[in-house]
Design brief:
Layout: E1 8-11, E2 14-17, H1 28-32, E3 36-37, E4 40-45, E5 48-52, H2 54-67, H3 76-90, E6 95-103, E7 117-124, H4 132-137, E8 139-143, H5 164-176, E9 181-185, E10 191-194, E11 198-203, E12 206-209, H6 220-231, E13 235-238, H7 243-247, E14 251-256, E15 260-267, E16 270-271, H8 279-291, E17 303-305
Parallel strand pairs: 8-9, 8-15, 12-13
Antiparallel strand pairs: 1-2, 1-7, 3-6, 4-5, 4-6, 5-17, 6-7, 9-10, 11-12, 11-14, 14-15, 15-16
Helix pairs in contact: 2-3, 6-8
Bound molecules: ligand PPE.
Length: 307
Amino acid sequence: MPITPSKLIWMDGELVPWDEARVHVLTHTLHYGCGVFEGIRAYETSQGPGVFRLTDHMVRLANSAKIFMIDVPYAVEELVQAVKDTVAANELPSCYIRPLVYLGYGEMGLNPLPCPVQVSVAVWPWGAYLGDEGVANGVRMKISSWQRHDPNAMPPAAKGTGMYINSSMAKVEALKAGYDEAILLSPQGYVSECTGENIFVVKGGRVITPPVSAGALEGITQSSVMAIARDEGFEAEVGNLLRSDLYTADEAFLTGTAAEVVPIRSVDDRVVGKGEPGPITRRIQEIYFAAVRGQVDRYKDWVEHVR
Ligand code: PPE
C-alpha cells in the first residue's frame, strides 16, 4: 500500500516536516527489531476528525512496551495528545495513524536497556487495506506454512516491530500462491490470526474468534466487533478454532484497524458459506463503519475528537 505524504510528523515532542523525519542508520531497532507500534484510524465525523478508540490503542502501546521493558518517556495521556496534535496539524479529515516507539542511536549490541527510547507519530491518508473489492465481496485466504509465534518465543500480547517478520513471510507466501491473505496457526495447531488482522467465524449464529493464547493480538477492532455482535443479540465468544472450523463455517471475516471488517470468501479453496459475504458479517460491517464515524449513539464514546 503506497504512502501519500502528509505535512508533519511528531518526533520526540516536536512536529517536523515530513521529509526531515529521519533516523541514523545505527538506530538500534533497525538492527534488532526491538520496538513497539500501533495502527489507528481517524475518521471524518460531523465534529471534525475523530480517532477511533485512541486511548485504548495507547494503553496497548504502553503494555507492549512494558512487555519488552522499553521505558517510554511519555505517559498515555501525553501520547493521546501527541496523536491529536499530529492529526490536527496535518489538516486531514481522515487518516491512518502510526505511533512508533523505537530504540535510537547510541549503543549497539543485544542489550537494549542503555539505548535512548524515541517516539514518533506519523499520519497519512490510507484507503482500504485489502482493497475496496475485498471489503465489498470478500477475500481468498490460504493457511500459511509458517506458524504464529509460540507465546514463549514472542509474546503475542505485544505489538512488537520485529514480530512482523513472521507476518511478512506468511503474506508473501500467500500472495505468491495467488491468494489475498494468509491465516496462521499456532504451534499447537489452533487457528491464530491473519498477518495483520484477527479472524472470526460464524457458526450456528455464534460468533467466535481465537484467544491470545493461540498467538492472536488482542485486537481493538476484534473487541469492538464482539461488542457489536452481542448488542445485536448474537452469542460472541473467544475460543479455540481448528482449521476445519474455517472450512465448514457459515461465515467468516477478518478485522483490523487498517483492514476494518472484511468478509472471507474461501479458505484453502474451500468456499465459506455461499462464497459471498453472509448476513451477520454484513450487519457487523455496516454497524462498524457507522460506529467509527460517530454515527451510532451507543458507541459514541469510542470516537475521540481531535478538537
Ligand atoms: N493482529 C495483528 C497481527 C495485527 O497486526 C493487527 C493490527 C490486528 C490483529 C488487529 O488489531 P486492531 O487493529 O487492534 O484491531 N494490524 C495493524 C497493522 C497493519 C499493518 O499493515 O501494519 C493495523 O491494522 O493497523
